[in-house]
Protein 1
Amino acid sequence: MEWGYEADHPFDEHGAQFAQAGLSFYLCPGTSSWNSIGGRTSNALGNLRSAAVNGLQHGASGYLNTEWGDNGHWQTLPINYLGFGMGAAYSWAWEANRDADVPRVISQFAFDDPTGNFGRVAYDLGEVYRVLGIEPHNSSVLFWMLQWPLQEVAEGYRETVSPATLHETLAAIDRALAPLAAAQSHAQDAVLLQREFELAARMLRHAARRGLYAIGAPDRSATELDRDLREIIEEYRLVWLQRNRPGGLSDSVARLERSRRDYHT
């Protein structure tokens, strides 16, 4: 099982080694959703495509698409749909799907939305991570801004992420979510899907504002950030239990509560 989650993971090199050794092997990419909140679209597509191309080239016996919950499962279910859908498309029929219009087909087949808007939101919200200009391994800056203590955020990003970049990020989040208002999904869970995307966007916004606060350029007070994160946690609990068993919820919430305590010091 060759696990690898970056777009440049050496599936080619390692696949060739497995084939030369006569081993039966799977290539195992992923949705790039964990440690991100909103996904990492470009990385996910590069990773999924590479696994498909090199799996075919080197005779892999399987393709295992993965999704994880490292450091708290903060991504809601539909953040994964783009990765689930395109992983299926590339692995089952690479030549037919290699040039697919990703937002359109994901909107149609994952969200049952003929307008294309749900797919566009999924795609664009998953591109917000790139606005920061820094792409940490297997994660996004906004995730760490929400996960780390404020002092660590300041030490890690004061010199590398500017207030202007974080304001650009906030604007990008709003642009990414805007098409949701015109979506027309026929899925039975369409209302919940919208709620899940809105929660993801709110968490990303909070992460950006937490970053501004940490680097000394706040646009919200500690009291306002505390109230916002408290409301996020309440909504997160409710949304989690709409689809999922309680297992894992307490750990994921505890990580948000830990970040919230920073606003009380």
Note: DSSP finds twelve helices and three strands in the chain.
Protein 2
Amino acid sequence: MAGKILISSAYLPPVEYFSLISHVDEILIEREENYTKQSYRNRCYILAPHGPQLLSVPVYSRSEHKIPIKEIRIDYSKRWQQVHLRALAASYNSSPYFQFYFENIERIILKKPAFLIDLNMELTVAILRMLNIDIKSSFTTGYTPEGKAENDFRYTLSPKKESKFICKEYLQVFSVDNQFVQGLSIIDLIFNTGPEAVNYL
């Protein structure tokens, strides 16, 4: 699928997110929409020893107010950075490529950007480099309602929706009942397959 797609901002998003990106020429990242709770915008899933584990970035967002995602601030009163980094280390320290990529992810998470969208964008750019994907990217400058934009994937990917995307299986450090686990963060694929990760998209 050549051309351009419209996608949401996301925190260490699933493999499917980057599979979409890898097949287009340009991505347009939504920054004008109202923040959506319980979405990939501030959460991801990794594969821990006991199974899939949710990692969530705490943000300041009062439920009675609609706030544009570009204005969503990260809540650093919670020690989420240490929790996430420890979880990543516990889950992937024995993976083949953890030592090659973790330091870069750690550096970005520890930078303490004020806004969620900035954290997500810096991580996304770093991951695209790890995947050796060179693509043009930009932010939206106005909001287009759902269903009114072409190639709109902003609300397609959601942890609350069952995905039809099937990732080609690779060797995971931990598995559940010896079964391959789908729907994980791109980090799971990168830590386990390294330079070959792009071939699984």
Note: Residues 4-200 form one domain.
Protein 3
Amino acid sequence: MDARIISASDTRARFEGASKATQLPLLQFLQTCHREIASDDSGSVASYIPELAKADPNHFGISVATTDGYVYEVGDSAVSFTIQSISKAFVFALALEIVGAKRVETVIGVEPSGEAFNSIRLRGDNRPFNPMVNAGAIACSGLIYDQEGRSAFDRILSTLGRFAGRELSIDEAVFASERQTGDRNRAIAYLLRTYDGIKGDVDGVLDVYFRQCSVLVTARDIAVMAATLANRGVNPITSEQVVSPHVVARTLSVMTSSGMYDYAGEWIYRVGIPAKSGVGGGIVAALPSQLGLGTYAPLLDGHGNSVRGLKVCQALSSRFDLHVFKPHRRCQERDRC
């Protein structure tokens, strides 16, 4: 298994020998973590979208990107998969950036739903609960569609690429499969239009949404995307300011409360890192001012979260004491917290 370290100051990958690479505690941990967790074959690949059922259940990749521009990779970190619901966090950030928080907040709430991601249910005020469930994500796509018209998806794709630090593309077969089997999302979209959560062309908005879910990424890509959030909106590889710190704060807040579906409370209690999962098998997690984590393993649990990815996140948080709400060691030593 190759261990790879990439520096922002050196765009070429540097492949380190095992004897040198394993001297790095984080990289050594990731190698051990991958080796131990790879044997867990519990869960199943998503099948409600037929193309997703074709995923190789043995694929397992981990990548960590630091805010000072280093990327650590083990396993199948270069294998492409569709971003699916991980896109929701970044499209929400884009909506905040180009439409403005005031407009977004009139259409979409920020409360945990406690229900499945594809629930056909709105809040009492007829807004989606938050932008991390399908109803809120479709409303987000609708806001960008209102702003950008037919170029809405191009704007989303470009922004996802800026987060990742490279040009991205979509899986056309998955897009076609999403569109063909997306009746539940159509029901959500028409419900939203009933209450002005979507205006205008519902099919146009849904095509944007289905396409954004079909964007191809790797574990490395989503680690860099997470590190961009962790780095106050600045991509640590390209040094580009992708979104403002104001937008980052709101995005991470909603990821913390709602990013892991109806497992969100358990997640923040045990792992304590803002995160978002997708039924394609990816998990993205961003620890402010420190790092971004991306994992890919398509076997999912009953909540729709990657089984192996969850274990990686839990192990990383525990091993390096990363829970965002844990008092800093210096505070504990001085009895100030």
Note: Confidence is low (pLDDT under 50) at residues 7-23, 329-337.
